Amino acid sequence: MKSTIKLPLFFLILLILSCNSEDEKALHLTGEVIGAETDTIFLIKINQDTRFDSLIKIPVNNGNFKYNQKLKNPEVVNLAFAESVKNGAFRPMPVFLENQEIDLTIYSENEFDKNSIKGGELNAEYERYKKDFETKFKAQNTPLRDSLSLLFKSNNYFNEKAKKLHKELRNSKNQEEKIPIYKKLEDLEKNNQHLSLKAKKLENKLEPIVEEQKQFQHSYIEENSSLVSYYLFLENLIYNKEKIDLNLAKRNYQILSQSNPNHPYNELSSNLISAIENIKVGKKYIDFSAPELNGNVVQLSDKINGEIALLDLWATWCGPCIAKSRTMI
Q1: Measured between alpha carbons, how far is residue 56 from residues 28, 73, 78, 96 in Å?
Q2: Which of 64, 120, 144, 239 has its CA 20 to 30 A from that of 27?
Q3: What integer pLDDT is reported at residue 5 of this predicted model?
């Protein structure tokens, strides 16, 4: 009789200990900053606007920092120095956060390639991906990109027509003068008529390598549908949306969303794909409501009421936007 009571009790204790162990699992992020003067580290989540969104801020004391948090889902952030973010130009470092111990060594921005991450299965996977990518493409990529960089520094990247427009842009006194120049430059780029002959030859050599890189990344996502792949996928959706292959993006999304159920990245990816697919010339507009200057909510469809309309989206902090609005008026 005694043994029958002790056995369930033993398993009950194990269960309680196991649950407590799960509850105690959390992210313990520690780090050291070497050769850089900073008092705060920022962790920037995917698709956050550094100017307005609430960022994770970690104080740096005597070159050391720490951050503890119990995460509902693993996620990727870009680590950056607060001072650089506030200045509007910063070099980010991707870090995958999990409920594990992760230790970082961070150098000054011009030595970010020396940064190291210890801890976290996803960080180890991302490091392997980067090494495989470099092994396959670095030897092809580096000479071409270095040559293009030299052309740019020596003012031989653009052809004479584009150079003239860039000069006019530099000499412009206000945004009203700049807007038509931007439009001319945009038209040149669309028609591939902005490069010098040397730059065009180098870009033509680089193009098939870039296509091969895209295929390499797609194959990686199909074979490794982890959060590392989700990060690579989202970076493309956000920063290369003009050149995205929509059918390929949809296939990648199916793979990633099924392998990462209930992750917030699923909704973000779905919204980004919908925006790329639907917000185009000739497509039907997406109705929405927003408050006007007096705070009254206005429905777009009520204002348009079946008429052809021009909708200009801009912000009070955007100088070129305000200038463009004035020219339209």
Answers
A1: 14, 16, 10, 14
A2: 239
A3: 46
